[in-house]
Amino acid sequence: MPDDELVLKISPVKAGLLCKCPRCGQGSLFKSLLQIADRCSVCQFDLAKSDSGDGPAVFIIFILGFLIIPLALWLEASFEPPLWVHALLWPIIIIGGSIALLRPLKGLMVALQYHHKASDSGSVDYD
Ligand SMILES: [Zn+2]
User: Fold this and answer.
1) pLDDT tens-digit readout, 26-49
2) Helix (H, G, I), strand (E, B), or coil: what is residue 11?
3) What is the DSSP string of 28-48?
4) Which residue among 24, 29, 98, 104 is the one 20 to 30 A from 113 at the CA level?
């Protein structure tokens, strides 16, 4: 099957959010928590060229900032907890939320780059 037909059949959003290979949608995109595998274990697609850059981190900063700042202000205004509650609670939520969101958003960025045949240089470099 030609590569262009595969690109059209695999949803980049589904493959990305499930952390699957952007070409076949089956192989795992990651070889460790946040490190992208060199090759897809199913279709042998070269994933080493994939680079999501800082994109996922920027989205996570916006998403978590949008959620956590109002929650922290609401907690303070409603219950006036001691300072140690804020110092203990928010770093755990921010670090946990960042790690939880980083994998699917990194997968989404890689899948969208593959789907739209994008690269850092602006030229098509996927096989
Ligand atoms: Zn694959």
Assistant:
1) 999 999 998 999 999 999 999 988
2) coil
3) BSBSSSSPBPSB-TTT--B-T
4) 98
Q: Which residues contact 11 (CB under 8 A, 6 or more apart)?
A: 25
Q: Which residues contact 84 (CB under 8 A, 6 or more apart)?
A: none
Q: Up-side HSE of residue 88: CA atoms within 13 Å toward CB?
A: 5
Pair of tokens at residue 7 = 């690109």
Determine contact, residues 126/117, Cβ cutoff 8 Å: yes
Comparison of pLDDT for 120 and 14, the residue scoring more: 14
The alpha helices in 40-124, defined as continuous H runs, are 55-79, 83-115
Distance 103 CA to ligand 1 centre (A): 17
Distance, in Å, from the CA atom of 61 to the CA atom of 9, rounded to the nearest integer, reads 32
The one-letter amino acid code at 104 reads: P
**How far away, in angstroms, is 27 Cα from ligand 1 center?**
5
Instruction: Convert the pLDDT of each residue in 10-22 to its tens digit.
Output: 899 999 999 999 9
